[in-house]
Specification:
Layout (H helix, E strand, L loop, with lengths): L1 H35 L4 E9 L2 E9 L2 H4 L1 E12 L15 E14 L6 E18 L3 E21 L2 E10 L6 E8 L4 E7 L8 H4 L2 E10 L1
Antiparallel strand pairs: 1-2, 1-10, 2-3, 3-4, 4-5, 5-6, 6-7, 6-8, 7-10, 8-9
């Protein structure tokens, strides 16, 4: 009787270990399946500054356990939003082209390709156009580049939400140079001044970067 009881105890212990091992194997398989569901290509739209409104493309590489990603932001806006309406010659169609492009690397801290991440990037702003006045025209072609650091989060799977804040080591200047060409053919260099003291716009001239985005992963 005692021997039978010992056999039953041993069988129960072995069954418990076998069951535990099976559960661990299932758990490992489930985690592997979740990792395989990582969608490395992300295409989305962003709004904020300095991108204003534009698109984003990100690719999560297999490097560093799928935590290192390459990211590109692009925006191109053709608008008269920088033109002072009270001074512009209405007989001309004035447009200023605003282009922003940023490329860099993102590193996801905790999970492969999702959650909280930090990044290092380089961005360039270009403003180009001609503004007509009654007695002259201003020709603008200005560019500003900067190395940036950022902190963001990718929230979601197939569809996602992405908030991000950052800092530009070379903050936006409070003026840009332009060439003023008068109707008689003479010209001079002038400055377009921005009011960098007005809140909350002064945050932009201090190097702050911020945007939110949505998109899909594939």
């Amino acid at each position: 009787m005692k021997r039978s009881l010992n056999i039953l105890i041993v069988c129960a212990v072995l069954f418990g270990f076998a069951n535990l091992h099976a559960q661990e194997a299932i758990s490992i398989n489930e985690n592997s399946a979740k990792e395989k569901k990582l969608r490395p290509i992300r295409i989305g739209a962003k709004i904020g500054f300095p991108i204003i409104i534009g698109g984003n493309l990100e690719y999560v590489s297999p490097l560093l356990n799928q935590k290192l990603a390459v990211s590109v932001d692009y925006s191109n806006i053709k608008s008269d939003w920088l033109v002072g309406e009270e001074q512009v010659d209405a007989s001309n169609n004035d447009e200023l082209n605003y282009t922003y492009i940023e490329g860099g690397l993102n590193y996801y801290f905790f999970k492969p390709g999702r959650g909280l991440y930090g990044g290092l990037s380089y961005g360039n702003i270009n403003i180009k156009g001609t503004v007509h006045y009654e007695d002259s025209r201003d020709i603008l072609d200005a560019s500003h580049g900067s190395l940036n650091i950022k902190l963001g989060a990718k929230l979601g799977g197939l569809s996602y939400f992405r908030p991000k804040v950052g800092y530009s080591f070379s903050s936006l200047p409070d003026h840009v140079e332009a060439i003023k060409v008068y109707n008689d053919g003479s010209r001079e260099t002038i400055n377009f001044e921005f009011d960098s003291e007005v809140k909350p716009y002064n945050l932009l001239f201090s190097g702050l970067m911020a945007n939110i985005g949505i998109g899909f992963a594939f």
